Amino acid sequence: MSHRLLAVLVGCLLLALGLPALAAAAPVTVNLRIEGPTRTLYEGPVTTDVGSVDVGDGTGPHACDGTTNPAVTTPTPTRGNAFFTAANGPGGFTFVGTYTFDLSFTQIAGESVAFDAGTGAFLGEFKNGVSANVGSCQDPIANGDDVLYAYAPFGDELLTLSGPATAAPGPATFRVTDTVTKAPVAGADVGGQTTGADGTAQITIADRGPHAFKATKAGAVRSNRVDTCVTDGADGACGTAVPVAPPAAPVADCVTSGRDGLCGTRDTTAPGATLGGIRDHQRFGRGKGPRRLRATVDADPAGLFAVKLRLTRNDRGRCEYFSGTSERFRINRSAKCGAANGFWFTVGKSPTVDYLLPRSLPRGHYVLDVEAIDNAFNRDDARRRGGNRVVFDVG
Q1: C-alpha–C-alpha distance, residues 88 and 204, integer Å
Q2: N or C: which end of the chain has fewer CB within 10 A?
Q3: Residue 78 DSSP code
Q4: How many CB atoms lie within 10 A of CB 179?
């Protein structure tokens, strides 16, 4: 089969189906908007070409290439082509109409657009803001034209809305003007805000991402849609990228003895305490006994609950213990001599102990012990000479 015959058959098939048939004219892209009685029925770019149209009233198909207009001598895409291309394309719509000299419609996308004698509303047709004086199939269109079908009473104002394509979260400025005169329009509603005398309205947009706005006003046709995408430039909205956080530093392996409370283990280890300032077996001269009792406690994961001291004295068989309450030595009358028969007194919960006795220790044989208790109530009861216990003499 020849290419010429194939083209003729395809053209006949498209004509039988009532779809636009391709012609020699180059396709054009226009902005088509259809405003119904209560809502926008269609809005978006449409790429169309010369073709016939059929409204399904039994009279078609009909040529819709502008040549029924005496001023047009070459077939060219028309407003009617744009309407039918949009209706039959993605996101299209249904319609009911007739063809008498040219296209007319009584219903679009389920809404009536028939003439209303009570309100005077009818489906007006406009190109680039100018009311059409010829029918849809007689009016040529070019790239970038604005084509509008609007259901409204005669003389209603046409509104044009402008605003930012992108905006930071917060207030953004939108402006409404008269499509024909370009003058600012006061009293129009945009996103719940009313335009002032300069035609502008400030709209605060908090949610990031795409937002759509239209302007409305009594006695005016709904405006075009303005799409504004809200982003701070680095939040992933509107095609922006979220900054990638630097990789986290590697986490060191958890080190534990298995009984120190670290890494989820149970704490059964007592804190270690060591006396300082007095050596085990140290002997002090008469009148030169120590007065300061010092100790340090190792760091403990559970934290310290208390640090205690115990100081006992044996002076030639006279056994005493130091009382932290009265801060003096007391005779242990009910027990035998020996450090185990003394009494502990608390000196705080600091890991550094520096306890000052009321006076220097007098003559005697002394045993000094330190004990630390952590918040898990572990305590080291084993006595270690030179560590948590020192034995010394004075005089």
Answers
A1: 38
A2: N
A3: B
A4: 22
pLDDT in tens, 358-381: 999 999 999 999 999 999 999 988
Report the C-alpha gap between 123 and 214 in whole angstroms: 20
Residue 269's Cβ-side half-sphere holds a number of Cα atoms within 13 Å equal to 18
The whole-angstrom distance between residue 339's C-alpha and the CA centroid of its chain comes to: 68
Here the tokens at position 138 are 């007689």
Amino acid at 247: P
Query: E strands along 259-388, which residues?
Result: 273-276, 283-284, 292-297, 304-315, 318-323, 328-331, 345-348, 352-356, 364-374
C-alpha distance from residue 144 to each of 23, 44, 126, 350 (Å)? 20, 12, 14, 82
Phi-psi region of 3 (alpha: psi -120 to 50; beta: other; left: phi over 0): alpha
Q: 3-class DSSP state for residue 87?
A: helix
pTM: 0.59
Per residue in 231-244, pLDDT tens?
999 999 999 999 99
The distance in angstroms from the start CA to the end CA of the chain is 131
17 token code pair? 């189906």
233 neighbors 239 (Cβ within 8 angstroms):
no
